[in-house]
Amino acid sequence: MVKYIQVKILLLVLFISLPPTTLAKLRVGFYTSSCPQAESIVQQAVQQRFVADQSVTAALLRMHFHDCFVRGCDASILIDSTANNQAEKDAPPNLTVREYTLIDQIKTMLEAACPETVSCADIVTLATRDAVSLSGGQRYNVPTGRRDGLVSSASEVNLPGPTSTVSQSQQAFSARGLTLNDMVVLLGGHTIGVTHCSFFQHRLSNFQGSGSPDTSMDEELVTTLKGTCGSVPNTDPTTFLDQNTSFALDNEYFNQIMKKRGVLQIDQELALHTSSSKLVSRFASNNALFGQRFAKAMVKLGNIQVLEGNLGEIRKNCRIFNAPSQ
C-alpha cells in the first residue's frame, strides 16, 4: 500500500513538472472544455458568408496558405501595418488576399463567448476547413491549439509565385516539410477561385520573347483570355482558374491542365513536368482520391511551425498584437 502511494505521488509530481508546452500540443477538440461552442461559431459564420459569396472558399484557402508559408500558421498575415512596421498583409503577394473582415467577425463572436481563449491562427484554420467542406471538398478533422505569432513583417514574405517552375515550387514546399504529392494536391485548390490578368498575361503574346503565345496553352483559351484581359482599359480583370466547375472543390483542375487549359504558368507546368505529370493524371481520373489527399495535405499544411503551449499569445484583436502586460 505504501509503495502504491509513493508511486502515485511520483507520477503526480512528474505530471506537474511537465513544461506547459507539453501540456498544450495540437489536438482535435482542443477547445472542448475551454470553449465548447468554438467550432460551431466558426462554422455558422463561414456558412453565412458562403451563402452570400461562394468565392469565400478560395479566399480563405489563399489566406491560410499565405499565412502558413511565412513563419508557420500563426495568423501573422492578419496583423495591420503601423507607422513603425509594414506587416505581411502589405507585401505585394498578399495585396489581393481578402476576407479579413470575416475573421474579425468570428473573433468578435468568440471573444464574447469565450474571452481570450481561441487563437486567430485556429480561426483561420477552422474557417478554411469549413469553407472547403461547403464547396464540396471532403470534411476533415482539424487539430487545434495554435497560438498567435508576435512578429509580422512584409520583408519576410517570400512565396512561390505563378511563374515559378515546378522545381522552384517544390523547393519552397520541401523547405516547409511538404512533399511533391502535397504540392500537387494543394495546387489543386486552384480548382476554385480567380486570378488577375497581370499574373498570366505574359503567356498570351510574345511568351519568353517568342513573338507568340505560350504553346502549352490551348489556342481557344488564349483567344478567350485575350478578350477578358483587354476588355476594360487600364484595369486588371480576373478570370476563373478552372473554366468548368469554377466554384466546386473537385478534381476538374487536373482535367483542365491535362487539356492545356491551365491559366497560370505553374498550373500548366504541373501537367508537363516529368516529376508531377503522373500525379496530375492520377488525380484527374479519381475525384475521391483527390478529395482524400487534399484533406490530408490541408491538415499537414496547418501544422507548419505552429506555436503551442506558452509560445506566442492569444490575440484579443486579430489585427493587433496584445499590449505588453504591466
Mind explaining what this structure looks like?
With 326 residues, the chain is mostly helical. It folds into 2 domains: 23-156, Peroxidase, domain 1, CATH 1.10.520.10; 166-300, Peroxidase, domain 2 (Orthogonal Bundle). It is built from 12 helices and 4 strands, in the order αβααααβααβαβαααα. The longest helix has 16 residues, at 2-17. The radius of gyration is 22 Å and the shape is globular. The model is unreliable at 1-23 (pLDDT under 50). Heme b binds at residue 190. It is found in: Secreted. Its EC number is 1.11.1.7. Residues 25-322 form the Plant heme peroxidase family profile domain.
Q: What does the secondary structure layout of this molecule look like, with pairings?
A:
Blueprint: H1 2-17, E1 27-28, H2 38-52, H3 56-68, H4 100-113, H5 120-134, E2 143-144, H6 166-174, H7 180-187, E3 194-196, H8 219-229, E4 238-240, H9 252-258, H10 265-272, H11 277-284, H12 287-301
Antiparallel strand pairs: 1-2, 3-4
Helix pairs in contact: 2-4, 2-5, 3-5, 7-12, 9-11
A few lines on this structure:
The chain has 326 residues and is mostly helical. The chain is built from twelve helices and four strands; from the N terminus they run αβααααβααβαβαααα. It has a two-stranded antiparallel ribbon.
